[in-house]
Each structure stands twice: as C-alpha cells, then as structure tokens.
Design goal:
Layout (H helix, E strand, L loop, with lengths): L7 H7 L2 H19 L7 E4 L3 E5 L3 E7 L4 E7 L13 E3 L2 E8 L7 H11 L5 H6 L20
Antiparallel strand pairs: 1-2, 2-3, 3-4, 4-6, 5-6
Helix pairs in contact: 2-3
Length: 150
C-alpha cells in the first residue's frame, strides 16, 4: 500500500529539527545538477519519514531516523569509503550506498559528486557526458575488418 504524499513543508514540519538542514543541502545541490541538464526533470516526493528524489527512477532517498538522516543513493560502481554507514548492497549492475548525515556540513564536495553521479543513474558524470559506460558502445576497437577474399 502506498503512503500518501506530503508537501515539502509538511515533511519538514513533521520531522526532527536536524532534518530540514540536511534536506536543504541535498535538495539545493540536486536542483543545481538538474538545471545543468537540458531535460532536467527532478521530482521531489516527500512521504511520512522519507523523501524520494527521482528523474525517472528513484536515485536518492533521504530516510529520517531518530538521530540522523540516512542518505541512500545508487551508483554503477561500489564506493570504498569510511563514510558509508551500511554494507553496500548490489542490485544487478547497480550498488546502493548509505551515509548517515546529522550535519549538513557532511554534504561536502565528495558527497555532492556522488549525488550528481546518482542523478545520472549511476554513471560517473564525465563518462555520462562522453557517452562512455554503455557496454554496447566500444571504447577501444582494435579489429580491422578486411573485405572478403575474391
């Protein structure tokens, strides 16, 4: 059963005090990332204890806990970082990461890069812009196809 959606204001009002500043730090960055895309379609979907960020599929979830916000995001690679709060979970070709955030200062440049990558559906931003990362597009072709013998 789906939970009824809330407005951002209703979500923040019903959440612990630390939630608003963490939400704002993540939201503001994702708005900037979204504006950088010509077809940006950021959807912010607040629920009772979570906020889903979508641009098609959900790529980031803010899950409000008692003392922090668990910020979860999916990438096409497994991060190796001491900042991760839970075991990285793999789902096919993607990896779901979670970082517990109780202070908006933790949303630093490194974290913002991860969020931008998640916005691009897990593709690293430089690769996504260049079209790399698609397994159907060869990145290095060393085969010469000769005409058939006569």
């Amino acid at each position: 059963m789906c939970q009824p959606g809330l407005s951002v204001e209703e979500f923040i009002e019903a959440s612990p005090d630390f939630t608003a500043s963490v939400f704002q730090a993540v939201h503001d960055h994702l708005v900037v990332v979204d504006r950088a895309h010509d077809d940006g379609q950021l959807i912010v979907d607040p629920l009772a204890t979570k906020v889903l960020f979508k641009n098609g599929p959900t790529f980031c979830i803010l899950d409000v806990k008692t003392k922090w916000v668990a910020v979860g995001f999916s990438l096409r690679r497994r991060l190796e970082s001491g900042r991760l709060s839970r075991k990285v979970t793999d789902y096919g070709s993607k990896f779901f990461h979670v970082v517990n955030v109780d202070d908006p200062e933790l949303i630093d440049d490194e974290f913002r890069e991860w969020l931008a990558e998640a916005y691009s559906h897990g593709d690293e931003p430089a690769q996504a812009a260049a079209g790399a990362g698609d397994p159907m597009v060869p990145d290095d072709v060393d085969v010469v196809i000769a005409p058939p013998p006569r």
